[in-house]
Specification:
The structure is a single chain. The chain has 104 residues and is mostly helical. It is built from 4 helices and no strands. The protein has one domain. Helix 1 crosses helix 2 (39-45).
């Protein structure tokens, strides 16, 4: 089986990649993916009080109800295990995504 590389990466080694599916890196791509592909996260992101990625993180970490569909600590990481506070996440890219989604 031939492995297809993700454009625009040059390598299938995440440590060597300079970008991931058009995002700065895997961590940024993964956070962005969960924000608009999970209804729960999307609903929180689209709240009027959420203007930035930092607002989103504060909002989800303040929620005390249990998301019964999740078998991971959804308040602190994506379903793929990437911390919402991962220093590799390009926050300005995520902020731009949030802004664009709210404009449409």
């Amino acid at each position: 089986m031939t492995r297809q590389l993700d454009y625009p990466r040059d390598t299938d080694n995440l440590k060597e990649a300079t970008s991931y599916n058009g995002w700065t890196n895997y961590e940024t791509w993964n956070a962005a993916l969960w924000l608009d592909n999970d209804y729960f996260y999307y609903s929180i992101m689209m709240m009027q009080s959420v203007k930035t990625f930092e607002d989103f993180i504060k909002k989800i970490q303040s929620i005390t109800v249990n998301n019964l569909d999740a078998d991971w600590d959804w308040r602190f990481k994506t379903g793929d295990g990437i911390s919402w506070n991962d220093p590799k996440i390009n926050i300005s890219e995520i902020d731009e995504k949030i802004k664009e989604l709210k404009e449409n």
